[in-house]
Structures are given as structure tokens and as C-alpha cells.
Design brief:
With 148 residues, the chain is mainly alpha-helical. The chain contains 8 helices and no strands.
Length: 148
Amino acid sequence: MDVSSKVRRGARSRNGPRLVLQPPSRRSARHTSAGVLARFFAIADAWELSPLQQCRLLKIPSPQVLARYRLGQAPRLSATQHERAALLATIQQALHAPEQPDRAWAWIHAPRARPPFDGDSPLYYMLERGLSGMREVARLLVRERTAP
């Protein structure tokens, strides 16, 4: 008996068919990425982010690739890119106020004296710190919003 026959025999379930979990289909994953990207670009437009700032926040290699993402011609987003986009959506949601449409823009761009910003704007903080900075800003805003 050779090794390949052991592998084949071991791969079959003795109790009938086994459940095999598969990743989502390409179509559904692409649809999910399209929704995430649409939300990201809406936030980027509202915050008036430059293409380079958008690339750094979403961890995209170049503005040319960013343009392909905007047109829907780029590959699917990675899990980290999904997380980055979700964090930005959380930040936007925490800052959104119907009576003050520019509140999010002003908060993101204005220098903040208190920690963790120490005189930098939250946008600069996120650009410099990357994913950890985005997590920290989102946590800070969620804490502020839920504080009594």
C-alpha cells in the first residue's frame, strides 16, 4: 500500500459526506468589496482626502491602483483593508451629526491638544500610525459617544 492510497482513503468520511466549508464565492466577495469601497470613497470625498492620503489609509500601493479600485477594476480587498475601511466608517458614524454636516471634516482635520494626538490632527495621527492609529481614534470616539 503506497502513501497516496492512504491519503485518499483518509480523506473520505466513513459516515457519509462531510461538510466542507468554502470561502465565499468570488461574486459575493466582489460585491461585498464593492460596497465597502463605495462607503470608503464616500467618506474620503466628505473628508476631502487626497489620493495619497486615501492610499495610506486603505494601504493601497499607489494612486494608479486607487483609481482602479474606484472604477471597480482592482482585485478584492484584503481582510486588513476591510478592517481599515470599517474603522473609517465607524469614525465617520461617530462624528456624523445631521445638524452639523461639516463636523466630521472639521474634527478630522483640526489639531487636537489632548492625548493621543498631542497637537496633531486625527487624520495625521492615523496616517502616521496606520492601522493601530485608526483603531485608537475609533475607540476614542466610541468611548466619547457612549460616555454618560
